[in-house]
Amino acid sequence: MRAAGRRRFREPTIALINIVFLMLVFFMVAGTLAQPLDRSLRLVRTQDLDGRAPPDTLVIHPDGRLSFRGNDVATPETYLATLDETDRAEIRIVPDRDLPAGQLVAIARALQAAGAGRILVVTERGLE
């Protein structure tokens, strides 16, 4: 009788190669689903534009001073007194970058207490 030899197990490398290949094909197809931009298209450059607040917003300066359409406003309550009911439903405020966060929150709370509806903070979005 022959002695039982050790059987060698082969690793399923072919199956692993097939899976990797299928993943490669999947990512190639998924990456090309979005239409590429036309090469002759030139996007708008916003680098040289002046950063100005929208005209119908309450601007809060770094020292806490309020202004609306270029005119100084004494308090958030006096600002709301100049608006009609439909404009009070949604208030946009533009705080300066150097304004302390606590002061911004205090002004927003004063606006809500005076009857403002929804308060939106307009910020700059950096796309780098």
Structural class: alpha/beta
Number of helices: 4
**What share of residues is helical?**
25-40%
Order of helices and strands: HEEEHHEHE
- Rounded mean pLDDT score: 78
β-strand percent reads 5-15%
User: For the CA atoms, what is the radius of gyration?
Assistant: 31 Å
Shape: elongated
- Give the tally of β-strands: 5
| Distance N to C terminus | 77 Å
Strand order of the largest sheet: 3-2-1-4-5
The low-confidence parts are none
How can the largest sheet be summarized?
5 strands, mixed
Task: Describe the protein.
The protein contains 4 helices and 5 strands. It is α/β, with parallel strands linked by helices. It has a 5-stranded mixed beta sheet. The termini are far apart. The radius of gyration is 31 Å and the shape is elongated. It is 33% helix and 15% strand. The protein has a domain at 58-121. Helix 4 links the parallel strand 4 and strand 5. This is Biopolymer transporter ExbD. Keywords: Cell membrane, Membrane, Protein transport, Transmembrane, Transmembrane helix, Transport. InterPro entries: ExbD. The chain crosses the membrane at residues 12-34. Belongs to the ExbD/TolR family.
